[in-house]
Design brief:
Length: 463
């Protein structure tokens, strides 16, 4: 029996309802799968030896009074000294303007950030991606925190924060941080280094009068403000299948599966074109109006819009972020906008393929968003979103991405299933450090299924 037949047999017998690729991509996306969570005995609040000492809400606690959990904001009381590490290690502030130091972070993450449980897939962040993500407008060098081995100078752990403004319902957090890229070298795991990294980056934020932070994770910690679910859409089904991750559903055939995910080569939105620098003000305005509909949202300035959606380019062209606008040919008004970013994964030990090229749906906005409660307005808007995001699939397909991923944020839960996105096994927990508030709906219902009845409350996409 040839390799393909063996693979076919394996995949057709797969116990995953929607297929291995989803489970693997969920893991890869750094979000532990439900399966992993099911296997481990449930951790109670008291088991969180570190997190129970932190100003975060407990599980299931009623929010009687919204506000900071620790109200202290006295910078004078913040230690000027870093936390103590074991004598073999030292803190370092990574200077990401230096390509060598950027490369060190890239290598640490590439080798240690996240793998699926069988070590077949691993995130393959590019240095350009990290530069884009970590050197955003107003970034603070001191918040790119590393740990080195004193003797060898080797970077063995990293955590970062970047400044941003978020809006939670009617409250604006003008000084907030987004914490990301927590990573510890595999040889230093389970040694309680994570609490030190978190406390150190928190100390550095406090020194700049920042007392709240947002962060996400697949693992459940006390206590998420919102829980979203992953969605995945095969573009190159054949490749995903040949790697061994996309299943061949019972009763189907490769020809049928390829036909199912086939996309036209031309986009269909009138006036669609790559975003340019001259569009920044209009995109900022459109995106801000659109995001006002959500309970928790990133509050974008024009400078951030330029950086987030164009990077260093005058015209959107990748290789990390792609952004498109639809321009009304008569009025020249930008009516719609969408963006996606590239985050590939290495395929380890496969003779045929080295990587899976994954695109992730990022921010989008459409002026057709419902202005009243009527079904007709919602239907018009949903149809428009389908047109736009189908075009983003077409463009991603032309760019030879293999899979397109999304989370149930913004209005995604209303239309992505119709575009052949499938529910993943992974969940993405959103957290706010040092703030207690009522939960924000994350686009899934009480059974954790996609909630097509209403948009999610989340207007915040974390990379
Ligand atoms: C996540 C990672 C840094 C944890 O390191 P570790 O060596 O397993 O854990 P440590 O012994 O250092 O610390 C354990 C504590 O960190 C907490 N922790 C683990 N992962 C965490 C995360 N992603 N975010 C916040 N806290 C986390 C644990 O809950 C535990 O605290 P508790 O006692 O309150 O439960 C490490 O596994 C890693 O680098 N993984 C790959 C990258 C990754 O998954 N990063 C997280 C991105 S969301």
């Amino acid at each position: 029996m040839d390799k393909k037949n063996t693979q076919e047999e394996k995949n057709s017998q797969s116990s995953y309802s929607e297929g291995g690729i989803r489970e693997l991509l969920d893991r890869l996306a750094l979000r532990s799968s439900v399966e992993e969570e099911k296997e481990a005995p449930a951790k109670t609040y008291d088991d969180y030896k570190f997190w129970k000492t932190q100003p975060v809400p407990k599980f299931d606690e009623e929010c009687e009074a919204e506000g900071p959990i620790d109200p202290n904001t006295d910078i004078e009381k913040v230690s000027k000294e870093p936390y103590r590490l074991l004598k073999e290690f030292e803190w370092t502030t990574m200077n990401l303007e230096d390509d060598n130091e950027l490369r060190e972070v890239y290598e640490l993450l590439t080798e240690n950030y996240v793998e699926d449980s069988s070590a077949m897939l691993r995130f393959a962040y590019s240095a350009e991606f990290l530069r884009w993500a970590l050197m955003c407008p107003g970034y603070v060098k001191d918040w790119h925190v590393g740990v080195r081995v004193k003797a060898s100078n080797k970077l063995v752990a990293f955590i970062s924060a970047v400044p941003l403004v978020i809006r939670l319902r009617d409250k604006l957090f003008e000084k907030c941080a987004e914490v990301n890229f927590l990573c510890i070298h595999k040889k230093l795991r389970n040694k309680r280094l994570t609490p030190l990294l978190i406390k150190e980056v928190t100390r550095r934020c406090h020194l700049l009068d920042v007392w709240q932070a947002v962060y996400t994770g697949g693992i459940l910690l006390p206590s998420p403000v919102s829980v979203c679910r992953y969605l995945h859409r095969s573009l190159n089904w054949k490749k995903l299948y040949e790697i061994g991750f996309a299943p061949l559903p019972f009763g189907s055939s490769p020809t049928k599966e390829m036909a199912k995910y086939h996309l036209p080569s031309a986009t269909a939105t009138p006036g669609l074109r790559p975003m340019e620098k001259r569009d920044v003000a209009q995109v900022q305005s459109l995106l801000s109006r659109y995001l006002e509909r959500f309970e928790l949202a990133h509050f974008f300035t024009e400078t951030e819009v330029q950086h987030s959606f164009l990077g260093d380019s005058e015209v959107s062209k990748g290789p990390v972020i792609w952004s498109y606008v639809a321009e009304d040919p008569k009025t020249k008004k930008i009516t719609d906008f969408f963006s996606f970013y590239s985050l590939p994964s290495s395929v380890l030990g496969n003779p045929q393929y080295n990587d899976i090229k994954a695109a992730y749906l990022y921010y989008y906005a459409s002026d057709s968003y419902p202005k009243d409660d009527s079904k007709a307005s919602l239907d018009t808007f949903v149809e428009r979103c389908k047109l736009l995001i189908k075009d983003s699939l077409i463009i991603a397909n032309r760019l030879r991405f293999d899979v397109f991923n999304a989370v149930t944020v913004m209005d995604n839960n209303l239309f992505l299933k119709d575009l052949r996105f499938g529910e993943g096994d992974g969940y993405l927990n959103y957290y706010i450090y040092n703030y207690r508030c009522p939960k924000v709906p994350g686009g899934i219902d009480s059974q954790n299924n996609i909630d097509k009845s209403r948009p999610s409350g989340m207007g915040f996409v974390m990379i």
